[in-house]
């Protein structure tokens, strides 16, 4: 079945058609244009695949460049038109739905590789021609007299018809003969060129070995040499060439002439420089991009003993708001203005500024004293951002957060330095922004560990790495076990057992808290059922209740009520055996929509406990509108009761809370009970239940069952 006209294959064919129409007029092929288009189609497919590949391969671009030479597209105009076509249409027709900025960067690198492949193939073809020319020249000088005329005719045909410049000089450097191609390169007549000496063509950009190789050749020590060389034209412009010089010997083997073959590479060199610039500079701001910056950073990190580096990693605060409210065009103008200001901050030797992407910029300083200069650079950047930026008549405030990394060269890789700077920048942002922070190895390690835990969370539940421990809830009146709080733990393969405070915030941030909370709820309810069934039902142990914590994310999840109902029905556990604990801070200012699921659960018979009560600064009058039946008093109110005598202020506060709770028909549970004196004081104050290390630490379900059984049997 053929591809749809608007499908990927159809777009690829349109790209090949545009390419063939642009290049065909400047080719030397005997094919028709449709035949030439068919030749370009597989090359277009190769470019398309390289553009969208998971990892970039420059070999595809080089292969396409070489294929153009084999197809007789050797005119420099053919390469220029090809690269213009690829630059304008490759991403448009073959990029599909990928990241446009990344695709444009790949396209630029493909163009660079194509130019390199074209140059290499053309050079190899030129060298083959050069060998034929050199052979013809030798034959012209060394054949017997009766064949001299025919040989010279063949040499003259090759000499004048060659597309590359050819010159012959004696060993003193006097130019004897030049062909038409060489005359056109320099824009000089044959007489003007023949009046020159080779050593007059010195150029400041000559490679150090240029004239040493020349001297070795004319002295007979070398047969040929090849290098890139620049020449001045009469109008002052520069001619760049691939230059090959060979030594011609007479019939006796003595050096007699030097033969120079020149390929004009000026346009190709300018094109390569342009492509290099585009591949290493940001199109919007003109600053060096991530690629260029990494090259400079790696060079700075390998600078040797005694050298140091300083890096400022800048991220604009609130830039997304500008894009969302004023549009991307306004955001782009802000980025350009910020780039100009940053460029003005890094003008000293060893300093540079780059844009990594989006609203992220970096400034680098190098030298032996970067401990001081990097702080000064960061201060200049912060000062440069003080003035508002005018966009469409609006004065926009610019703020930024900077992470600074400074240290000696040779100790860390570029990736490690940038990661540390990124982590430090986010630390500055989380501290309120509009500031800079210095890198802290310990903070870096914590952030890296936190990131590792975040990425491992999604599969940890599937791998069964979570387990639950239970801490008894004890009645203060008779000391009986009335239930337990379920506390989830993570048995991490590398870090061992992790407590909830290490991973619950990460689970809330990633959204994994919903499936994890559902799993904890079901496992805990099943355990409550197992406790009751183990020794003949509820009569043996009393009405054991299981307490399960709910996070704020779970409260807003639309499936909370239905999930709870389904779990209770599947396990055959009555709703009054379940208590859901919600932190006071999660319910501050809660509207009716947020409270509705809790009310429905409470109406079913599920107890709702207000956890960490006393830490949320809520209005006590709000207790009347919350569907709670239990207050869990935060341990901060009862810590002083571990000592005798207890703080009288804390006693009054707890006494008042208990009195208020009981007047509202709410039970009071106390957390963090660690001594007998504390437990007794809380009993006297009227608290109903308690939990803490005084009774038992969180542990496996079997231990709780044993404690409850002891209470039931006396």
Account of the 3D structure:
Residues 143-147 have low confidence and may be disordered. The chain folds into four domains: 8-132; 162-270, Beta-Lactamase; 280-439, Reverse transcriptase/Diguanylate cyclase domain (Alpha-Beta Plaits, 2-Layer Sandwich), CATH 3.30.70; 455-703, EAL domain (TIM Barrel). β7 (351-357) and β8 (360-367) form a beta hairpin. α3 packs across α5. The protein is an alpha/beta fold. The strands form four sheets. It has an eight-stranded mixed β-barrel, surrounded by four helices. A five-stranded antiparallel β-sheet has the order 2-1-5-4-3, with helices on both faces. The N and C termini lie far apart (82 Å). 50% of the residues lie in helices and 19% in strands. InterPro entries: Biofilm_reg_signaling, EAL_dom, EAL_sf, GGDEF_dom, Nucleotide_cyclase, PAC, PAS, PAS-assoc_C. Residues 307-441 form the GGDEF domain.
> With helices defined by DSSP (H or I, 4 residues minimum), what is the helix count?
25
* DSSP strand tally: 21
DSSP helix fraction: 40-55%
Any idea how many domains? 4
Gross morphology is: elongated
InterPro entries: Biofilm_reg_signaling, EAL_dom, EAL_sf, GGDEF_dom, Nucleotide_cyclase, PAC, PAS, PAS-assoc_C
Protein name: Diguanylate cyclase (GGDEF)-like protein/PAS domain S-box-containing protein
Organism: Streptomyces griseoloalbus
């Amino acid at each position: 079945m053929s591809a749809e006209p608007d499908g990927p294959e159809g777009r690829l064919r349109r790209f090949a058609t545009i390419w063939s129409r642009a290049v065909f007029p400047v080719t030397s092929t005997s094919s028709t244009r449709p035949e030439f288009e068919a030749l370009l189609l597989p090359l277009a497919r190769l470019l398309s695949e390289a553009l969208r590949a998971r990892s970039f391969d420059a070999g595809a671009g080089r292969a396409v460049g070489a294929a153009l030479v084999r197809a007789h597209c050797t005119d420099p105009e053919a390469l220029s038109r090809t690269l213009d076509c690829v630059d304008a249409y490759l991403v448009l027709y073959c990029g599909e739905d990928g990241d446009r900025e990344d695709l444009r960067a790949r396209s630029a690198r493909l163009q660079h590789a194509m130019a390199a492949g074209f140059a290499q193939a053309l050079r190899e073809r030129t060298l083959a021609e050069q060998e034929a020319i050199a052979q013809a020249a030798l034959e012209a000088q060394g054949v017997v007299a009766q064949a001299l005329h025919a040989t010279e005719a063949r040499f003259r045909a090759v000499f004048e018809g060659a597309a590359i410049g050819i010159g012959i000089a004696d060993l003193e450097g006097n130019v004897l003969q030049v062909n038409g191609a060489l005359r056109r390169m320099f824009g000089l007549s044959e007489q003007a060129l023949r009046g020159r000496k080779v050593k007059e063509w010195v150029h400041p950009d000559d490679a150090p070995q240029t004239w040493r190789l020349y001297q070795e050749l004319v002295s007979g020590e070398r047969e040929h040499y090849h290098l890139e060389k620049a020449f001045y034209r009469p109008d002052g412009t520069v001619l760049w060439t691939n230059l090959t010089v060979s030594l011609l010997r007479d019939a006796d083997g003595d050096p007699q002439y030097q033969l120079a073959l020149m390929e004009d590479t000026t346009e190709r060199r300018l094109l390569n420089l342009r492509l290099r610039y585009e591949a290493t500079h940001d199109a919007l701001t003109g600053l060096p991009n991530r690629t260029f910056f990494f090259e400079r950073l790696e060079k700075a990190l390998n600078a040797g003993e005694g050298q140091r580096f300083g890096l400022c990693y800048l991220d604009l605060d609130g830039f997304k708001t500008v894009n969302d409210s004023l549009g991307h065009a306004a955001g782009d103008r802000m980025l350009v203005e910020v780039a100009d200001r940053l460029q003005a901050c890094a003008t000293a030797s060893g300093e540079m500024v780059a844009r990594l992407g989006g609203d992220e910029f970096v400034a680098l300083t190098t030298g032996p004293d970067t401990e001081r200069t990097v702080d000064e650079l960061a201060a200049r950047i912060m000062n440069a951002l003080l003035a508002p930026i005018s966009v469409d008549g609006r004065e926009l405030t610019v703020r930024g957060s900077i992470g600074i990394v400074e240290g000696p060269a040779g100790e860390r890789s570029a990736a490690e330095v940038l990661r540390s700077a990124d982590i430090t920048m986010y630390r500055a942002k989380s501290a309120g922004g509009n500031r800079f922070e210095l890198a802290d190895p310990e903070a870096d390690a914590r952030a890296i560990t936190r990131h590792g835990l975040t990425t491992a969370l999604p599969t940890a539940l599937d791998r069964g790495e979570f387990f639950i421990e239970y801490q008894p809830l004890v009645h203060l009146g008779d000391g009986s076990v009335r239930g337990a709080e379920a506390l989830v733990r993570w048995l991490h393969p590398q870090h061992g057992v992790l407590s909830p405070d290490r991973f619950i915030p990460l689970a809330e941030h990633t959204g994994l808290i919903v499936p994890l909370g559902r799993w904890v709820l079901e496992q805990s309810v099943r355990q409550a059922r197992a406790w009751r069934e183990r020794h003949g039902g509820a009569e043996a142990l009393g009405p054991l209740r299981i307490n399960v914590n709910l996070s704020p994310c779970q409260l807003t999840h639309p499936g909370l009520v239905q999930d709870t109902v389904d779990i209770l029905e599947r396990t055959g556990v009555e709703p009054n055996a379940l208590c859901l604990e919600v932190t006071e801070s999660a319910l501050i200012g809660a509207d009716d929509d947020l409270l509705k699921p809790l009310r429905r659960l409470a109406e079913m018979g599920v107890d709702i406990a207000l956890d960490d009560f006393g830490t949320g600064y809520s209005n006590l009058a709000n207790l009347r509108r919350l569907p709670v039946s239990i207050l869990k008093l935060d341990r901060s109110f009862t810590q002083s009761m571990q000592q005798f005598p207890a703080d009288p202020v804390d006693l009054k506060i707890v006494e008042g809370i208990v009195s208020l709770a009981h007047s509202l028909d709410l039970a009071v549970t106390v957390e963090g009970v660690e001594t007998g004196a504390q437990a007794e004081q809380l009993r006297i104050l009227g608290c109903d239940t308690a939990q803490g290390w005084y009774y038992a630490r969180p542990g496996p379900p079997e231990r709780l069952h044993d404690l409850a059984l002891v209470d039931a049997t006396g």
